[in-house]
Write a structure and sequence with these properties.
The protein is mostly helical. It is built from 24 helices and no strands. The protein is 63% helix and 0% strand. The N and C termini lie far apart (59 Å).
Length: 370
């Protein structure tokens, strides 16, 4: 092993960059901590790929002696090198790098920005809170998401006050971001404000408010969410249906049944799923006709929902569905029949054991039926 490691260390000086790059990767795979001094020297390699691979290797090897040269690389001209250095410093627990990482929150590369945010969160950098709060308004979604996670990790209560104020910002983009962030930060003190936001003129903001309310488990929002089932925007209606289902809002069942005929396909799909999840037995008579719908997704979701609802009156139409041209529909019909436990389904299920797409579902159903 030592001989092999020595040969690889020697290769770090090879004229061919591919050989140097391969040697770096091989050394880290071997956990060769004795190569750390030579790897640190390689941080000045002229080849970007070799330099980046070396940065990652030093982080993986836990090379705390590399922290200072890694900090210097935060100014590297290559954004991949900067990002790699940021990640390595985070992995190494390099608290001395915090001021330099804060400076990178303004890096021209959003990928570097995001990595800096993540490392600051991992390092518990309370001194970065003010700067992180400003990034909640960043135009890049990935940067915003990383910022919210970091603030959550840091337990930042002062961010919640700032975000609640931001719900009244004239810019709908900021209102939407703030609503999303409050949900991810589990800010229950914002529930009243988020309910008010359900009437926002921007559909994006309304949808963010809906999603955050369900993240907060805000059952007090159910009556307000029910009114949103008539929202003119399909995405808002869809998000509201999912939210009501997740909140276990049985009082929404009557209103959801009306949405079975919604003009938007995705809204209809979500409605069927929600009715099944909510145990809406009063919806059974409305779901059975959907087993003949021209859309296969509707047929498959209706079959699954009827199984969940233990709809004995759906047994015959579900048996008929075992011959559907779409294998997903056949599979969901078989699963539903297994759940319903009626032995009438045994004989029509047996041929499906030879159906390559549905045989597993058919066997499970037959096992349930005994």
């Amino acid at each position: 092993m030592q001989t092999e490691i020595q040969k690889l260390i020697a290769l770090l000086k090879d004229k061919n960059w591919v050989a140097r790059h391969s040697a770096v990767q091989a050394l880290v795979n071997l956990g060769a901590k004795e190569a750390i001094p030579q790897l640190i020297a390689l941080l000045n390699d002229l080849d970007d790929d070799v330099r980046c691979a070396t940065i990652v290797a030093l982080g993986d090897l836990g090379a705390k002696e590399a922290i200072k040269p890694l900090i210097a690389l935060l100014k590297d001209k290559n954004w991949v090198a900067r990002r790699s250095a940021v990640q390595a410093l985070g992995d190494l627990g390099a608290k001395e790098a915090i001021p330099y990482l804060i400076a990178l929150l303004n890096d021209p590369s959003w990928v570097v920005q995001r990595s800096a945010v993540q490392s600051l969160g991992n390092l518990g950098a309370k001194e970065a809170i003010t700067y992180l709060i400003d990034l909640i308004k960043d135009p890049n979604r990935d940067v915003r998401h990383a910022t919210i996670v970091a603030l959550s990790d840091l337990g930042v209560k002062e961010a919640i006050t700032y975000l609640i104020d931001l719900l009244n910002d004239p810019n709908n983009y900021f209102r939407s971001n703030a609503a999303e962030a409050l949900g991810q930060l589990r800010a229950k003190e914002a529930i009243t404000n988020l309910i008010a936001l359900l009437n926002d003129p921007s559909w994006v903001t309304r949808r963010s408010a809906v999603q955050s309310l369900v993240n907060l488990g805000a059952k007090e929002a159910i009556p307000y969410l029910i009114t949103l089932l008539n929202d003119p925007n399909r995405d808002v209606r869809h998000a509201t249906i999912v939210a009501l289902s997740d909140l276990g809002a049985k009082e929404a069942i009557t209103y959801l049944i009306d949405l079975i005929k919604d003009p938007d396909r995705d809204v209809r799909h979500a409605t069927i799923v929600a009715l099944g999840n909510l145990g809406a037995k009063e919806a059974i008579l409305y779901l059975i006709p959907l087993l003949k719908d021209k859309n296969w997704v509707v047929r498959s979701k209706a079959a699954k929902a009827l199984g969940q609802l233990e709809a004995k009156e759906a047994i015959k139409p579900l048996i008929a569905l075992l011959k559907d041209k779409n294998w997903v529909v056949r599979s969901k019909a078989a699963e539903a029949l297994g759940q319903l436990g009626d032995k009438e389904a045994i004989k029509p299920l047996i041929p499906l054991l030879k159906d390559n797409y549905v045989c597993i579902s058919a066997k499970q159903a037959l096992d349930e039926l005994g």
